[in-house]
Amino acid sequence: MTSLPRALALSIGQLGDPAILRVLGKCLAVTLAIFALLGLALWGALDAAIDRWVVASLPADYSAAVAGILAIAIGAIAAWLLFRIVALFVLQFFADEIVRAVEAKHYPHAAAVADLPFRQELANSARSALRALLVNIVILPLALVLLFTGVGTALVFWLANAVLLGRELQDMVWLRHRHANEASAPIAAPTRFALGGLVAALLTVPFLNLLAPVLGAASATHLVHRGRSDNV
Question: Transmembrane stretches, by residue range (predicted)?
Fold first, then answer.
C-alpha cells in the first residue's frame, strides 16, 4: 500500500502539471470570490445595523468607518473558521480534473471511469459543507471552554476536522470508482485520519492553505487506488 508520505511526495511532484495548475487557479479564484461577496454582505449588514442602533451614540459620519473595521475583524475570524469548508465545497466541483490528472500519469488503467453527474457533485458538496459546519458548531462550546489552556481549542478543532477531511477527501475519489458491491473504504482509518490531519494543519498556514485542498485530493487519489488494488 502506498503510504501517506509517498502519496504526498507524488502529489507535490505533480503540482507543476498544467491540469493541476488550472484546477488550483480556478479553486483559488472561486474561493476568493465567495469570500469577497461574503465580506461585502457582512459590511453592508454591519453598516445598516450601526446606522440603525449605534447612530444615537456615534456621529453618523463614523458609522461607515466603524462598520468597515468590524467587517474586517469579523471577516478575518470567519475566514479562518470557514476557509476549509468553502475551499472543500469549491474543490468538489473540480475534483474530477485532479483525479483525472493523477490517474492519467500514475493509474492510466483507471482513467476511463465516468465523472459524477453535476447534480450528484452538488449534493455531495452540500452534504460535506453542512456536515463540517454542524460539527464545528457542535464543538464550539467545548473549544471556548478550553481557551484557557492555550492549545486545547486548536487541538479540538484540528481533531474534528482531521476526521471530517479524511472522509471527504477519500469519498471525493472513491465515489467515482466504487462498485455497487464495494462497501469497505479503500483507505485504512489511521491513514485516512493522518491525511485529514495533515490537510487540516496545512489549511491553517498562510499560502500553504491555498495548496492544501489540491494536495489533499491528489494524495487521496493515490491512497484510494493503492488501497483498492490491495483489497482486490
Answer: 27-46, 66-91, 133-160, 193-218
Position 88: which residue type? Answer: L
Cell of 192: 485516512
Neighbours of 91 (CB within 10 A): 26
- Angle formed by the axes of helices 152-174 and 189-202, to 10°? 120
Q: Are 174 and 186 in contact (CB under 8 A)?
A: yes
Q: What is the tens place of the pLDDT at every residue in 13-60?
A: 999 999 899 988 888 888 888 888 877 777 777 667 766 665 555 555
Is residue 88 within 8 A of residue 121, CB to CB? The reply is no
CA distances from 169 to 2, 40, 54, 66 (A): 16, 30, 45, 40
As given in the structure block, the three cell numbers for residue 230 are 490491495
Separation of alpha carbons 19 and 229, rounded Å = 25
Could you tell me how far CA 189 lies from the centroid of its own chain? Answer: 19
CB 146 within 8 A of CB 176: no
